[in-house]
Design goal:
By secondary structure, this protein is an alpha/beta fold. The chain folds into 3 domains: about 60 residues, Roll (Archaeosine Trna-guanine Transglycosylase, Chain: A, domain 4); about 110 residues, Transcription Regulator spoIIAA (2-Layer Sandwich); about 190 residues, Rossmann fold. The chain contains 11 helices and 20 strands. The strands form 4 sheets. The protein has a 7-stranded mixed sheet, with helices on both faces. Strands 2-6-5-4-1-3 form a 6-stranded mixed sheet. It has a 5-stranded mixed sheet with strand order 7-8-9-10-11. Helix 6 runs parallel beside helix 7, helix 9 runs parallel beside helix 10 and helix 10 packs across helix 11. The radius of gyration is 22 Å and the shape is globular. It binds S-adenosyl-L-homocysteine. The site of S-adenosyl-L-homocysteine has 19 residues, from helix 7, strand 15 and helix 9.
């Protein structure tokens, strides 16, 4: 039997049901666990506390599967966890409003390292840790049985896999997935490229926020600052925006945005797609005296961890300062950070600093979060990564 013994007093986080065990908390390892194998986690005095997946290459040396040391960790265990996650999704308020949905959100659904998203009738799986990798084939079989899907595409090409000593994988896992497919969300259709997209294909976490922008956009001149494939752009147009200017650094993302406009019969509206650096473009708009009534800023992750927070803070400050300067009186700034390393408090302070330096008075009229299919276990605050503010000047 593989067992790990914690240093004296280092069981505190575990007793609060936080699922991560850092290397520095471990006094000794008994046995020779393979990467991803199940280990029993014991208090310094030998009392078993939990069962966890062993990650020998990561600073997060083990992740808890169950806080009941007597529950076997086997296929049946994972089937129960997956069923429970699917049941929870089925009870969400917007279930049925979209055929693209996160089904498993890793730690927050009790399966650390595993992300599973449904895109129409296929699944995209992301395995991020030694533990999820160890069980991947079993998990894939159970997922097909429990969802009725026939196909799984694997997008295990996130950087964090490197920290676990795992190579990137971007390939079919079960069946023969098509290269692209169409999803529908709140009445709009989007093309998704399975292998060349961000995340698992689409920013599912912004679903409710896209709908909010649709509700705010009527008769406004809109700027969509980091548009990707046009999620906010499409919604602004669907909500009756007067014009939309869409900026992204990626030509491929904008090509797909153009396709999405056509797909939804929105291509003949007043919408302009511009490729380029949003920081430079917004500065140019400011210098040209252009103004907007609604600006969406959804930049990429500037700070993956707290260690990058300072440099990231500059980026957020600069882009939000430009955003505030480009607004007409009464205008709305819808601004996001998806950086795990930037807390909601810090983000609000950064945006407040940006408004001050822009010389505008702004108030928060809505605070936004990741959508409900990306839940945050109360025992795992790290699960909260996306925050947004709607500020009116
Ligand atoms: N709002 C989108 C997701 C945005 S993801 C949605 O709801 O689908 C962030 C986007 O920022 C990516 O498409 C990336 O290509 C783009 N990006 C990254 N750096 C950028 C920069 N400096 N200027 C403009 N776009 C940038």
């Amino acid at each position: 039997m593989n067992r790990i013994f914690l240093k004296k007093g280092r069981e505190r986080a575990l007793l609060r049901r936080h699922p991560w065990i850092f290397s520095g908390a471990i006094a000794r390892v008994e046995g020779d666990p393979a990467p991803g194998a199940t280990v029993t986690v014991c208090r310094a005095d030998g009392t078993p506390l939990a069962q966890a997946a062993w990650s020998p290459h990561s600073q997060i040396r083990a992740r808890v599967w169950t806080f009941d040391p007597s529950t076997p960790v086997d296929a049946d265990f994972f089937r129960k966890r997956i069923r429970a996650a699917l049941r929870r999704r089925a009870s969400l308020p917007f279930f049925g409003q979209s055929d693209a949905l996160r089904l498993i959100h890793a730690e927050s659904d009790g399966i650390p390292g595993l992300i599973v998203d449904r895109y129409a009738d296929l699944l995209v799986l992301q395995s991020l840790t030694a533990g999820s990798e160890f069980w991947k084939e079993t998990l894939a079989d159970i997922l097909l049985e429990e969802t009725g899907a026939a196909t799984i595409y694997e997008r295990s090409d996130a950087d964090v896999r490197g920290l676990e000593g795992l190579p990137p994988i971007n390939a079919p896992l079960r069946g023969q997935p098509p290269a692209t497919l169409t999803i529908r969300e709140h009445g709009l259709a989007y093309r998704v490229h399975l292998s060349a997209s961000h995340k698992t294909g689409f920013y599912l976490d912004q679903r409710e926020n896209r709908l909010l922008v649709r509700r705010l956009a009527a008769d406004r001149d809109v700027l969509d600052g980091f548009s990707y494939t046009g999620g906010f752009t499409l919604n602004a147009l669907a909500g009756g925006a007067r014009s939309v200017l869409t900026v992204d650094a990626s030509e491929e993302a904008l090509a797909l945005a153009a396709e999405n406009l056509r797909l939804n019969g929105l291509a003949d509206r007043d919408v302009t797609l511009q490729s380029g650096d949003a920081f430079k473009r917004l500065r140019r708009f400011r210098d040209e005296g252009r103004r907007f009534d609604l600006i969406v800023l959804d930049p990429p992750k500037f700070a993956p961890t707290a260690a990058h927070a300072q440099r990231a803070a500059r980026g957020y400050k600069d882009i939000n300062l430009l955003g505030f300067k480009l607004l007409r009186p009464g205008g709305l700034l819808v601004t996001f950070s998806c950086s795990g390393g930037i807390s909601p408090d810090l983000f609000q302070k950064i945006v407040a600093g940006a408004a001050l330096d822009a010389g505008v008075q702004a108030r928060i009229v809505a605070q936004l979060h990741q959508s409900a299919d990306h839940p945050i276990a109360l025992t795992f605050p790290e699960g909260a990564y996306l925050k947004g503010l709607v500020c009116q000047i």
